[in-house]
Design goal:
The protein contains 13 helices and 10 strands. It is an alpha/beta fold. The strands form 2 sheets. It has an 8-stranded parallel β-sheet with strand order 5-4-1-10-9-8-7-6. The chain has a two-stranded antiparallel ribbon with strand order 2-3. The relative contact order is 0.13.
Length: 331
């Protein structure tokens, strides 16, 4: 597998781009955050497998880990399991990189409780999704995030993903929230470069891409990094893209974008996240691939397409058995 020339797997943070007027509010979280999966074994969270995932990311140079987000199957984890996974990641990381767990809920009291708990455990920030299903007004969004921001000291990243929550947090509301001291970041997953551009133009928030395939476009309008799914398997390559852009080497960043794009497309397009990424990690021998209902395994035609994409990327040899398949064969 190719890596950028001179790449060193040491954690780093993007320095302000030459065209940026000033550092952004959550600049310490610029760079690569990886939304890690929650590994399961026989239906229960597998803390040893989680440990291996965390060490893999630290060795690669990832800046921040985001456990129990969408990719971590947070909707199907119990409150106790949320706490268990967050505590385990914070303990394993032991201060070597940052940890920004998902602590959102469509109930403000529950989001506040979990965010306070994560802060007490030593989380560096909290990734808080917009309240889903109950579809608040814009004032409701504002009051929800304000209640949490007023109660904790750690930085908060607003996670705006209307495709899952059913309603957009409008840029004007995000601009109001940006006035609160510890609202520091936005995970921008609307798919709209206009919205990302408006947030960059009207606030000092750190904008992080919430879609791997849009990382480079969002960087180009002033974004400062990504909360990545594809980073579960190729964190060094995502870092190479970020580093190239930060150095002003746009051609190199574009080459990484083109290389990563088919992988990003399949991991977020073949089925609902995290079904494809867990399948990919199983094919690569890094996960059991277990999911919790209502998430179901990737269908066979999509598995074939994913296998071809992994092979084309250089992660698998075409027609070869994967480590997981060999383990089953030799059992």
């Amino acid at each position: 597998m190719m890596y950028a020339p001179g790449f060193s797997p040491v954690p780093y943070h993007l320095s302000p781009h030459p065209l940026s007027p000033m550092p952004t509010k959550g600049e310490a979280f610029a760079g690569l955050s990886v939304a890690i999966t929650t590994p399961f074994q026989n239906g229960e969270p597998d803390i040893e497998a989680l440990r291996q995932q965390v060490e893999f990311q630290i060795e690669a140079g990832t800046d921040c880990l985001c456990p129990v987000g969408t990719t971590g199957e947070s909707p199907t984890l119990s409150h106790e399991e949320h706490e268990r996974v967050i505590a385990a990641v914070v303990e394993i990381v032991a201060g070597r990189i940052k940890v920004m767990p998902g602590t959102g809920s469509n109930c403000t009291r529950e989001a506040l409780r979990l965010t306070r708990w994560a802060a007490r455990q030593g989380a560096d920030a909290a990734l808080i999704v917009a309240p889903y299903y109950n579809k608040p007004t814009q004032e409701g969004f504002y009051q929800h995030f304000k209640a949490i921001a007023d109660a904790v000291d750690i930085p908060i990243c607003i996670y705006n993903i209307p495709g899952r929550t059913a309603k957009n947090i409008e840029p004007e509301t995000i601009a109001r929230l940006a006035e609160l001291p510890n609202i520091a970041m936005v995970k921008e997953a609307t798919g709209s470069l206009d919205q990302a551009s408006q947030i960059v133009a009207t606030t000092d928030l750190t904008v992080l891409s919430g879609d791997d395939s849009l990382t480079l476009p969002i960087l180009s309008v002033g974004g400062r990094g990504v909360v990545s799914v594809v980073g579960n398997i190729v964190p060094r390559d995502v870092l190479a893209l970020l580093r190239a852009f930060d150095a002003g080497n746009i051609g190199e960043a574009q080459r990484w974008h083109r290389k990563l794009f088919p992988l990003c497309r399949d991991l977020l397009g073949l089925a609902t996240n995290p079904i494809p990424i867990k399948t990919a990690m199983k094919l690569l021998g890094r996960d059991t691939g277990e999911l919790r209902l209502p998430m179901t395994p990737l269908d066979e035609p999509s598995q074939i397409k994913l296998r071809r994409t992994l092979a084309s990327y250089g992660l698998l040899k075409e027609g070869s058995r994967t480590p997981a398949e060999l383990a089953v064969k030799n059992a």
